[in-house]
Amino acid sequence: MGYLVVALIVIGSAIAAIPAINYTSPMTAISLEAAMCAFLLMSISLLMATRIKVLEYLFGGLDRLYVAHRRIGYLILVLILVHYIYTPNFTGLFQNKELNELAKLTGYYTFFALCALIVFSIVKKIPFLKFQFPYHIWYATHRFIGFAFLAIAFHQFFVKKPFDQTETIAYILNFASLVGIVSYAYTQSISHFKKKSYRIVAVEKHAAATVITAVPTGRRLKLRAGQFIIAHIRRRGLREPHPFTVSRIAADGSLTISVKPLGDYTRRLRENLHAGDILRVEGGYGHFHFGRGGAQQIWIAGGIGVTPFAAMAADLQQYPQISVTMIYCVRDVGEAIYQDLFRALDEKLENFRFILHASNDSGRLDAEKLKELAHVKPGQADFWFCGPAPLRQALVRGLAKIGEKPRRIRFEQFEFR
Fold first, then answer.
1. Per-residue DSSP letters for 64-87?
2. Is residue 11's pLDDT more than 90?
3. Where a domain ends, among 252, 268, 285?
4. Which residue of 67, 226, 273, 368 pairs with 288 in a disulfide if CB–CB is 3.0 to 4.6 A?
5. Residue 137, helix vs strand vs coil
6. Do 13 and 104 belong to one domain?
7. Higher-pLDDT residue of 189, 229
């Protein structure tokens, strides 16, 4: 639905621009259309970064909203390259010669800066090398895209163009400028006021994860099992916001997150976080909840992907009509967190079956083993997955080959850059 709305906005605006540029040459018209569509998409991209709920629902979850945000970035890059390669050539309107020249220069230099920022946002690591750009550098540079938009907004308003401010497309572009500028101001300032403060009361260091429990110091978040939060720590070196799935939601408002020490930030978190530190959070986000599924479900957790299932399993007793087989995949039994919770729920609930699958002992989980372990036929069940994408893809392909393609496949695209 979200992609359709974006497409309708951009295509409708492109059509609205035709009367204003129809006297120009075909190459100039293409260049101008590309520039205007890129500007609209930049405005939409900045609006997406606000994480407002209506956009999350349109795209089916914040994870998919960010995937769309990234794909729009690719399209913006292509469109501004088209505008640069096919330089417009027309007899246009001057509002003020000095401003027109300044706008032209601003657009010229911002083009290179914007290309560099978009490419840096897309490229996570240098090809053929193990070096990966640190998240905090990516996050810091990504914020400059808002300044680039301000420069492009100045460029589009004051540069010489083949139409005046009374044309429909001019109103559309000026409104897009307003939306983009307000969205950027919101993400950089006002959005911080919607964050809630939680005080960390426990930090448990397990072999495979750091388990953090925090209690609200004021108003609590509205969270649902399976959702995630955007959080940062009020401590030097830990202020970058990151997404974390909530693995436990208590009646008193406290929450628990489990963090695998995979990168620089999560390792620093494990080493430097202490009880008493303040966690600043916003959310909950995501639509990963089994209540939206069918009566027969198979849950597959891979490694730290177990976190949403911990909260979901605790919530399962409220859904007696849903029968679940959960398979938790780890390399070694010692890496498994929350297994005591799952085993206790297995004994307590008739509609929940828990299986711990350690690849060091039983080999890698494949479609045949999944069919053997599950208490329901995979082809008659909904498939809920959280873990490494290669495992999910291998299982889905394998199940299709043996004629057991799941009824629905649900997973989160949990990568924000």
1. HHHHHHHHHHHHHHHHHHHHHHS-
2. yes
3. 285
4. 226
5. helix
6. yes
7. 229
